[in-house]
């Protein structure tokens, strides 16, 4: 069977909770549907959840992340920071994060040895243990969560500095502490807690994490790919490789393990889960529920839907990519209409939401986007945020 770009766009309405009738009631349901929410740019998790909740509140997002801790921030695919359902933490850790942590450790050790030959693997291990001990000790009198600065004040090794870009005009010093805490988090020994400075802040408090139950890496990879195909499928081998950050060998092996079924796509051969196409005709959402209702959505930078595939021509005009993505491939705030990116948006310093249409899809689309912009404006009030990875269009809109 072959799926067209229109067929694939139709699936996004309900599978990615974008159509109003498909929106979820709880933040955890959003993360579950999207196989995790991007949180490398701090505002993304809040705005991605907002766009997909029936009655979005900051309180519900905070509850999931901090009070109930049903969502965990962790580095996994492509070293990206995600908020993932707690029960899936072993899947992400053993399929991806463990290997990412090993590479990060090797890279950090190289950097440390260049600064000081005595800063070897034993030195780093001792610094990590000292940081973990300090975090546990301080956490006993701080509701379990401790700031990075408080930990560094207790551990001299974390206050050591490394020279970045030595000899360059932009040479700078950076403390070792941030890298050590990052590495502990990648290893799953500590977790990021509440933000320091509100929902737009990239600074976090930390807490010691319980040990994860062991899971065979191949089983973990299979579960992750099953979930990706259920939400993002169909996708190509390249899409899965890009999203996971795995080798092509691991991707092919895992697609075979889950029994992925080939399907024709505009960009070549793709994959779906067994029985996926039987659930509905290509013209509907693939779940037997019929064609989706028309909808508009304003998604933040690095939203999982924007960043879900390597090949994006089926939902993004290639001519618009330079305006909506930065030079490193980070997607900015995007305007969607019926599963297609038709423009971009931004938040000005006074909190005003502004947007620009790049593809004309008629009066109905423009009115729906304007209504979504007004809804977001009302929800944010006069609050403002600045994307960590500003795109050319976002910069233009905020001048």
UniProtKB/TrEMBL annotation:
Which GO molecular function annotation, any one, does this entry have?
A: DNA binding
**Keyword set, alphabetical order:** DNA-binding
> Would I find DNA-binding among this entry's keywords?
yes
The record's section on Pfam families has: AlkZ-like
* Domain of life per record: Bacteria
Q: Which PANTHER family match?
A: LMO0824 PROTEIN, WINGED HELIX DNA-BINDING DOMAIN-CONTAINING PROTEIN
- Under which name does UniProt file this protein? Winged helix DNA-binding domain-containing protein
Which species does the entry assign this protein to?
Answer: Streptomyces armeniacus
């Amino acid at each position: 069977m072959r799926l067209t770009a229109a067929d694939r766009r139709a699936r996004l309405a309900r599978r990615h909770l974008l159509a109003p009738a498909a929106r979820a009631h709880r933040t955890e349901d959003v993360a579950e549907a999207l196989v995790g929410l991007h949180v490398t740019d701090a505002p993304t998790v809040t705005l991605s959840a907002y766009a997909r909740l029936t009655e979005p509140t900051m309180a519900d997002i905070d509850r999931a992340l901090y009070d109930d801790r049903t969502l965990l921030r962790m580095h996994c695919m492509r070293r990206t920071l995600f908020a993932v359902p707690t029960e899936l933490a072993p899947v992400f850790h053993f399929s991806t994060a463990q290997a990412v942590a090993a590479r990060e450790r090797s890279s950090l050790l190289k950097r440390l040895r260049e600064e000081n030959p005595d800063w070897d693997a034993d030195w780093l291990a001792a610094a990590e243990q000292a940081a973990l001990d300090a975090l546990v000790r301080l956490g006993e009198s701080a509701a379990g969560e401790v700031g990075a600065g408080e930990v560094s004040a207790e551990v001299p090794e974390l206050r050591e500095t490394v020279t970045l870009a030595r000899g360059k005009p932009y040479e700078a010093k950076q403390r070792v502490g941030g890298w050590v805490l990052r590495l502990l988090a990648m290893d799953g020994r500590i977790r990021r807690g509440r933000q320091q400075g509100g929902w737009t802040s990239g600074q976090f408090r930390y807490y010691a994490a319980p040990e994860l139950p062991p899971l065979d890496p191949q089983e973990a990879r299979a579960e992750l790919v099953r979930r990706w195909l259920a939400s993002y499928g169909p996708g190509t081998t390249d899409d899965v490789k890009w999203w996971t950050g795995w080798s092509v060998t691991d991707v092919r092996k895992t697609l075979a393990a889950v029994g992925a079924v080939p399907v024709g796509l505009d960009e070549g051969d793709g994959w779906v889960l067994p029985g996926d196409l039987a659930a509905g005709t290509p013209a509907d959402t693939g779940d037997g529920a019929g064609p989706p209702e028309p909808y508009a959505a304003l998604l933040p930078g690095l939203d999982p839907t924007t960043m879900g595939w390597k090949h994006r021509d089926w939902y993004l005009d290639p001519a618009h990519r330079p305006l909506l993505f930065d030079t490193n491939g980070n997607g900015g705030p995007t305007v969607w209409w019926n599963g297609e990116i038709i423009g971009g948006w931004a938040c000005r310093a006074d909190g005003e939401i502004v947007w620009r249409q790049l593809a004309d899809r008629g009066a109905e689309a423009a009115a729906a986007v304007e209504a979504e912009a007004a809804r977001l404006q009302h929800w944010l009030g006069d609050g403002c945020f600045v994307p960590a990875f500003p795109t050319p269009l976002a910069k233009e809109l905020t001048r």
